[in-house]
């Protein structure tokens, strides 16, 4: 009996392209957080009122209303600097995972679903919002993978 050996072809991407893709994803993630932090800050009362409508976080709505845009700005700053962009990507993934868990739990336990994300993102349905977040998480993971590949090639 003959054995068949299959060769796995991997897409070969140059180090420069990997680096540029990672930077592009970092900047896209940074832009998302800058945009949403801005929207939540400019219309803070609306953001706070939306949080107050969610039963399981109502008691923490005020601190959350200040913490979320602050955290988004800090993560955006980490993503901006080349020396901290890797930590920024990890932080971005963590924050987006928390937002995604919040959306999923709200979809399960809340009767009404007020969106208070700010700007054009509010136009998404809750399930679209969930997929939007998951897509950004996947992009950030890809960027981390690209950064790790570049690091391992240089060593």
UniProtKB/TrEMBL annotation:
Record's keyword annotation contains Transmembrane: yes
Q: Tell me where it resides.
A: Membrane
Methylamine utilisation protein MauE domain ranges (all copies): 20-144
Q: InterPro entries this protein is in? A: Methylamine_util_MauE (IPR009908)
From the record, give the transmembrane residue ranges. 21-39, 59-80, 87-109, 129-147
**What's the chief localization of this chain?**
membrane
Q: How does it sit in the membrane?
A: Multi-pass membrane protein
State the superkingdom. Bacteria
Q: Which UniProt keywords apply?
A: Membrane, Transmembrane, Transmembrane helix
What name does the UniProt record give this protein?
A: Methylamine utilisation protein MauE domain-containing protein
């Amino acid at each position: 009996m003959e054995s068949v050996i299959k060769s796995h072809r991997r897409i070969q991407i140059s180090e420069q392209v990997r680096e540029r893709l990672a930077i592009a994803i970092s900047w896209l993630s940074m832009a998302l957080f800058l945009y949403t932090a801005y929207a939540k800050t400019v219309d803070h009362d609306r953001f706070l009122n939306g949080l107050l409508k969610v039963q399981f976080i109502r008691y923490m709505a005020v601190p959350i209303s200040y913490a979320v845009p602050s955290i988004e700005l800090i993560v955006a700053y980490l993503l901006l600097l080349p020396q901290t962009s890797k930590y920024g990507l990890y932080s971005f993934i963590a924050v987006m995972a928390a937002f995604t868990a919040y959306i999923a739990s709200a979809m399960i336990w809340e009767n009404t679903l007020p969106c208070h994300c700010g700007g054009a993102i509010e136009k998404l349905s809750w399930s679209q919002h969930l997929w939007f977040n998951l897509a950004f998480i996947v992009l950030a993971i890809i960027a981390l993978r690209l950064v790790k590949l570049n690091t391992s090639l240089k060593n």
